[in-house]
Specification:
The chain is an alpha/beta fold and 210 residues long. Helix content is 19%, strand content 29%. Helix 4 (159-169) crosses helix 5.
């Protein structure tokens, strides 16, 4: 998995990632410098730091497909495919499953909004982007090779809660996200890694420059 990460997966800060290979996929692009034109952009929800028209404009081409909840896609123009939890579709040969993402005991990401995380099958690897979520019961059904999990607390799971989520999902590799920008510090990622030592491999990425 670590070879796959080195070749194909870049963290762009906050909850933003780019998958590069036979296709180029972005997840929640925010405050990015630009990059290769996207075949697919996935949005977990409509908050400005996850669905940013300004950032989409940097990577959107005439054939880019936009996937996300309806309220997120309403902010954008182009080839749009609305999703809600439980939906499955294939775009540019990439299998996409939208899964639940919501808060428990917080009001920032209500379950009733039907916002999402994603399971993507890319270059033969199954990747879970949890979106902005707490440790929710639906995670026990997630099967992924790589899990991208928020760790900052406040709006999402704390590092300790993310450890519990990773132990339930049991990916080959877990990668912390949702820190170092709007909320959360590198120390949250470090606590996540320490909590999973000897149990689940953790890769703490540095933000890519492009």
């Amino acid at each position: 998995m670590k070879t796959f990460i080195e070749r194909h997966l870049a963290w762009l800060g906050h909850d933003s990632f780019r998958l590069s290979g036979t296709r180029t996929v972005y997840l929640d692009p925010f405050q990015i410098r630009g990059g290769p034109v996207a075949d697919l952009i996935c949005f977990t929800h409509e908050h400005f730091d996850h669905c940013s028209p300004e950032d989409v404009a940097k990577i959107q081409g005439p054939h880019t497909v936009l996937v996300g909840p309806p309220d997120a896609l309403a902010k954008l123009q182009g080839d749009k495919r609305p999703v809600q939890p439980g939906d499955r579709l294939t775009v540019a040969g990439i299998a996409i499953e939208a899964v639940p993402a919501y808060n428990i005991g917080k009001t920032f990401h209500p379950q009733g909004n039907r916002w999402v995380g994603y399971l993507l099958t890319f270059e033969g690897t199954r990747i879970y982007h949890a979106g902005d979520t707490d440790h929710i019961p639906e995670m026990k059904h997630i099967k992924a090779d790589i899990a991208l999990l928020p760790v900052s607390g406040t709006y999402v799971m704390t590092a300790t809660e993310a450890v519990a989520a990773a132990l339930e999902i049991r990916p080959a590799v877990a990668i912390p996200m949702h820190y170092g920008s709007i909320v959360g510090e590198k120390s949250d990622a470090d606590r996540f890694r320490e909590g999973l030592a000897g149990k689940v491999d953790v890769v703490v990425l540095s933000p890519a420059k492009g």
